[in-house]
Amino acid sequence: MAQYTRVSGSVGLITLQSPPVNALSAAVRQGIVDLMQRALSEPEVKSVVICGQNGIFCGGADIKEFGGQMSGPPLIPMIHAIEAASKPVVAAIEGIALGGGLELALGCHYRIAHSKARVGLPEVTLGLLPGAGGSQRLPRLIGVPAALDLITTGRHVTAAEALKFGLVDQITDHNTVNVAVKFAQRVADQPLDARRISTYPCLCPSDVAVLFEEVMQRVRRTARGAIAPIACVQAVRAAATLPYNQGMERERELMATLFTSGQARALQYFFFAQRAVGRWSMPSGARWDTSKPRPVHKAAVIGLGTMGRGITVALAQAGFSVVAVETQEKQLMEAKQAISGMLERGAKRRGVAPALDKINYGRNIQSVADVDLVIEAVFEDMALKKKVFQQLSAVCKPSTFLCSNTSGLDIDQLACQTRNPELVVGMHFFAPAHVMKLLEVVYGPKSSPLAVATAMQLGKKIGKVSVAVGNCRGFVGNRMLKPYLEQALFLLEEGATPEFVDQVLEEFGFAMGVFRMSDLSGLDVGWKVRMADGLAMPDPTTGQPTRLRQGRRYSPLGDLLCEQGRFGQKTGRGWYQYDKPGSQVAKPDPWLHSFLDEYRARHALVAHRIDHQEVLERCLYSMINEGFRILEDGIAAGPEDIDVIYVFGYSWPRHHGGPMFYAATVGLNKVLERLEHYYQAHPDVPSLQPCHLLRKLVASGSPPIQKWREVIKKVRSQL
Ligand SMILES: C/C=C(\C)C(=O)SCCNC(=O)CCNC(=O)[C@H](O)C(C)(C)COP(=O)(O)OP(=O)(O)OC[C@H]1O[C@@H](n2cnc3c(N)ncnc32)[C@H](O)[C@@H]1OP(=O)(O)O
């Protein structure tokens, strides 16, 4: 909706009213069309100001409307009518002008922004392009290079940057609407021809063809299969090379392709999924809106290895006082130096002072006595972690939250070491912890809603997307990774090469295939865990069959590589070879190919031709199957939680929506049928056996993903 008022006698003020972000819903568009007509027809009105209520100009098209039938006046003619108006129209931009909101402002003749406002064309992040004339007007206003940057990245820019680009005409620290009204009065009689952006020529640099080629190459390289960034470049190229009307036609064609693509649907689903995870719930019924967090002023980090350092940086950068504890003097000195470097580099990038004074370093665990929350980040060893939790429980205030950055150990066992197990939760960060957006907040059977709410809020404050998950081996992310890694190894046993498996996964859109990723993280990490679990078997005298563990198929390939000292990038050898230890350029290794041949011969495995489809289906469907088990077990509240974890923590390509959304796109019956097929071929691989929930969903007619929670509830209640 929109409201009309006459101010200062001669200015028609149109206020968009659609909380929370004044999105351009059908009702809002109708309001703008009607009220523009009214303002133009009233003779006393000499100029018009468009603003949004509650200090927010406009968050763009109403994304919720994308899935349904289009109703109400379309955006493009509405914006054209504003631009063609006979009276000056001024956009008063407060808060945000994003997507269609900025396109609306570009249709106005003038733009006044508050100094704290942000503007941008983020449509690319929703699998779209600025399809209401934005791709044609923006380059005409600010030039091709700047428009390409904004449109292909979707980044928001500050009012100051927008002023520099010429995207807004004025910025103010005062009441933007008042300033815009005064401005509108001043320009009331001025001619408008020079203010209609669609009539501007598109000024291009002399080497524009080279520029487009370079940008297209960069976009193709980084898009990982996403089509919207490429369409964005094509649309801007149309602005640079065609008259406005033809450019608009090209924008429309490209938009139609994107709009109906599965990628746009996936990205729009993901937009809401990211927000849905904030509305967490626990099986006990505790929820985000009924559980109040307790404020955290001072936190501590125990253990300053790679993870502890990153967590310390994340906390300090967000303004928390941190006590950083490392018991070994040498490690403490090294960590201090590394943390200071990280803070200084980060601060330089962001143009702020480094938060060095936020951190107090110490070797003694006693120094955490007065903190509100501790994050333990010592080595992934249960006995060690238990000891640390016992010490923390003795040293800290009774009200201190004790959190573990374990990547998969039992939170309950740690909680049992403390006086107040209800204040214990997992806070599973992802490396590098000051960069990666994901945080799994893990609740054990004893964790209180207060502890979960506090960890979730702390995550938000340090800029993480936090997902509340239940306690089980590997939680959500690493639990699902297990069958994926396992299938990749089985594929090698059966005839594939690491290069081929990685190529298929990278073509699908992963930043790195499974083997390149293992080389980067270090093969020894998983090896140590498998040894602790009694799986890896360096000693052939144990009598266990090499390729069988606990009645299931097991691949010792990773263990065999570790026994050779091949730990990945850090040793210069792993699934690939590298020029030197630490190098990142992976090259196929003939040694590894011979090793695989010998291994297959030794175990009488006959290599068969493995194609693209088999790699993708076995790796992804086994992981998805585990995702369904996780939902069935109540470890994740809904498919959105899993998808957000996979996109932010495991580089799952966002334009496929996440593994569970992908399963819905492929068709649950197809996933089920292919799992059945592979399980029949590999009955000793339980992760390929389709789980009950998947069968139940298929039997219920494969409802849309938004309806899965209803089926999940039924399945859980029957268990
Ligand atoms: C063609 C396509 C055209 C013309 C387009 O315009 S596409 C849309 C382009 N606009 C965007 O991409 C903006 C999307 N929104 C955001 O980036 C952010 O929400 C925000 C910066 C506007 C506000 O961020 P924040 O303050 O952190 O709040 P939330 O993100 O939590 O959002 C609050 C609630 O508003 C809902 N929302 C936000 N934008 C839209 C929108 N464009 N359409 C519909 N709903 C929107 C969001 O889902 C939150 O709702 P709840 O989840 O809390 O119910």
From TrEMBL:
InterPro entries: 3-OHacyl-CoA_DH_CS, 3-OHacyl-CoA_DH_NAD-bd, 3HC_DH_C, 6-PGluconate_DH-like_C_sf, ClpP/crotonase-like_dom_sf, Enoyl-CoA_hyd/isom_CS, Enoyl-CoA_hydra/iso, NAD(P)-bd_dom_sf. The keyword Lyase applies. GO terms for cellular component: peroxisome. It catalyses: (3S)-hydroxydecanoyl-CoA = (2E)-decenoyl-CoA + H2O; (3S)-hydroxydecanoyl-CoA + NAD(+) = 3-oxodecanoyl-CoA + NADH + H(+); (3S)-hydroxyhexanoyl-CoA = (2E)-hexenoyl-CoA + H2O; a (3S)-3-hydroxyacyl-CoA + NAD(+) = a 3-oxoacyl-CoA + NADH + H(+). GO terms for biological process: fatty acid beta-oxidation. Pathway: Lipid metabolism; fatty acid beta-oxidation. Residues 474-578, 615-702 form the 3-hydroxyacyl-CoA dehydrogenase C-terminal domain. Residues 298-471 form the 3-hydroxyacyl-CoA dehydrogenase NAD binding domain. Its EC number is 1.1.1.35, 4.2.1.17, 5.3.3.8. It is found in: Peroxisome. Monomer. Belongs to the enoyl-CoA hydratase/isomerase family. In the N-terminal section; belongs to the enoyl-CoA hydratase/isomerase family. This is Peroxisomal bifunctional enzyme. The gene is EHHADH.
